[in-house]
Specification:
It is an enzyme of class 5 (isomerase). About 5% of the residues lie in helices and about 40% in strands. It has about 350 residues and is mainly β. The chain has a single domain, classed as Beta-galactosidase, Chain A, domain 5. The protein has a nine-stranded antiparallel beta sheet, with no helix packed on it. Strands 1-2-3-4-5 form a five-stranded antiparallel beta sheet, with no helix packed on it. Strands 19-18-21-24-27 form a five-stranded antiparallel beta sheet. It is globular, with a radius of gyration of 19 Å. The structure holds beta-D-glucopyranose. Beta-D-glucopyranose (BGC) binds next to strand 24.
Amino acid sequence: MSQTISMQPTVKISPFGTTPNGDAISSYTLTNNQGTQAVIINFGAILQSLKTQDKNGNFADIVLGFDDLESYLTNPAYFGATIGRFGNRIGNGQCTIDGQTYTFLQNNGSNHLHGGAEGFDKKVWQAETVSDENSAGVILTLVSPDGDQGYPGNLTVKCEYHLTNDNQLQIKFTANTDKTTVVNLTNHSYFNLKQQGTMLDHLLEIPTAKLTPVDENMLPTGEIRDVAGTAFDFTTAKPIGQDIDAKDEQLKIGGGYDHNYYFDKADGELSLAAKTIEPASGRVLEIYTTEPGFQLYTGNFIGDDLSGKGRQYGKHAGFCVEPQHVPDAPNKPMFKSTLLTPEQTYTSEMRYVFSVVK
Ligand code: BGC
């Protein structure tokens, strides 16, 4: 597909439907001076589309998603969504903060998953655009009230998307609370760099071989395990599907990869989480994060009934690398804390970096 490329990064605002409550939703199309294009909607602060070049200069949309707002109102697989207040699982839908026990919706067996029935992926965010000669962006803000989905404290959240001329989509989160709460924000984009079929043939490289294994309820056991030499070892690039059916107790529990990798690094240091190459198109995606780890999720439960952008989705249609703290950290004191006090500011940054190999 050819497109006209302007020298200045641009932001274009278009209508994207109306919610059942009557909120008008817009899409924000960010285009950089190389023609890379990211579309964000202010429902769920969702990354709806991401068009990057292949080795022949052809643009294609490399994220799973839908064409209309109606589909995003349910969005059962969380395509492109901003996840909060707490990404991933809180065991038994409960945790204790400052001596008080809080109860959350159990929407994943007995676990609380991705912030509840009306998590940040289902909220209407306020949006304002920003751009300069090097980048185009949109800044989304949300006030999650005290008691929202059971969480304590009024939480003011900011999610910024900036598409830079050097082909990075930077996502920056900040949050402040007026009562101690737990926060673990992430972006839940699913990638398929060839825009069709499954992504099992993409080459994946993950620099760390440390993992937090899970029990049969998908909750971390508390162990940090060295997985060098196992199916979970991606320290040397290999196809995502190469070992996905290996006889491995952890793969069996997850129905594929659905696990948190863990880094040993200084708090807040930006580092490479994962690098993916799709050999046919030559597209390369690198994902950086300041978080101490990330969930590798190979789309094991994407329903065959989901379709969008002229595609039928299904199992392994895309993969996610979701930067975050260790799941269930509110109940697992051996892991880095996810508590946010009124004196602190939560910050987290991730980057999707695009390039090609011939
Ligand atoms: C979780 C999966 C879950 C999926 C929902 C991922 O972040 O790790 O277990 O099924 O989100 O789309």
